[in-house]
Amino acid sequence: GDSVTQMEGPVTLSEEAFLTINCTYTATGYPSLFWYVQYPGEGLQLLLKATKADDKGSNKGFEATYRKETTSFHLEKGSVQVSDSAVYFCALSGSSYKLIFGSGTRLLVRP
Amino acid sequence: NAGVTQTPKFQVLKTGQSMTLQCAQDMNHNSMYWYRQDPGMGLRLIYYSASEGTTDKGEVPNGYNVSRLNKREFSLRLESAAPSQTSVYFCASSESGQFYGYTFGSGTRLTVV
């Protein structure tokens, strides 16, 4: 079945460092891909999405490119801030229309 | 915009007690979902409702029941709570189709003692 694999955390960075969180997927057909962010004590918020191969989703300085050849959707940000500390979830939506989530990656940004 | 509203935010139950988690959305979405979130396991789908009048089991439905009361409301019931059901529960809603992300509620933190 469809699945999503994320790098394990926590990821600890200093402020203004470059961020990459790896995400790979297994799916039949052509899924849509998503990144969600969860701040402490809150629900998940959609961060960005891409619905077809080579699409780049972007929001709040975060970017991810849908790479079908490597089945990946890695999240990147050029300069992280303390306020980016959160848990990040990669997810896919395939033929069943239901979102399938990775296990999440905790990001901690130190001043 | 209220989005997706869940009640209650916190609940402590004794083993064997029952309760209903409420969820309502005001975005006119067709589809609604219940997930549970446990440490290290991401989010797991309990039940979903693709449209008003339909419900289907997700990945972990045992011990739960749901009701899609109308297009806005989707409730989750625990008939006889067990400690293994201690978790954070999230309700979500979406448009139909794979291109749409979900809008999540802020969650219900449930502890079963």
Summarize the structure.
The complex is a heterodimer of chains A (111) and B (113). Chain A has 111 residues and is mostly beta strands. Chain A contains no helices and twelve strands.
List its salient traits.
heterodimer, A: mainly beta, B: 113 residues, mainly beta, 4-stranded antiparallel sheet, 0% helix, globular
Describe the model.
With 111 residues, chain A is mainly β. Chain A has strands at residues 3-6, 11-14, 19-21, 23-26, 32-38, 44-50, 56-59, 62-65, 75-77, 86-93, 99-101, 105-110. In chain A, strands 2, 5, 6, 10, 11 and 12 form a six-stranded mixed β-sheet that branches. In chain A, a hairpin with a 5-residue loop joins strand 10 and strand 11. The mean pLDDT of chain A is 94. With 113 residues, chain B is mainly beta. In chain B, the strands form two sheets. In chain B, strands 2, 4, 5, 6, 9, 10 and 11 form a seven-stranded mixed β-sheet that branches. Chain B has a four-stranded antiparallel β-sheet with strand order 1-3-8-7, with no helix packed on it. In chain B, strand 9 and strand 10 (103-104) form a beta hairpin. The relative contact order of chain B is 0.33. The chains are: A mainly beta (111), B mainly beta (113). Chain A binds chain B through residues 31-32, 34, 36, 42-46, 49, 51, 89, 93-95, 97-99, 101-104, and chain B through 4, 31, 33, 40-43, 45, 48, 50, 58, 90, 92, 96-107.
The pair of chains with the biggest contact is: A-B, 22 and 25 residues
| SSE arrangement of chain A, N to C | EEEEEEEEEEEE
Low-confidence segments of chain B? none
**What fraction strand of chain B?**
over 45%
Distance between the termini of chain B: 36 Å
Globular, elongated, flat, extended or rod-shaped: what is the shape of chain A?
Answer: globular
Mass-distribution shape of chain B: globular
Uncertain runs of chain A are: none
Query: What oligomeric state do the depicted chains represent?
Result: heterodimer
Tell how many strands the DSSP assignment of chain A holds.
12
Question: What is the residue-mean pLDDT of chain B, rounded to a whole number?
Answer: 93
> Termini separation of chain A (Å)?
41 Å
Major sheet details of chain A? 6 strands, mixed
Number of helices of chain B: 0
User: What is the percent of helical residues of chain A?
Assistant: under 10%
Order of helices and strands of chain B: EEEEEEEEEEE
Radius of gyration of chain A: 13 Å
Structural class of chain B: mainly beta
Mean pLDDT of chain A: 94
Helices of chain A, by number, come to 0
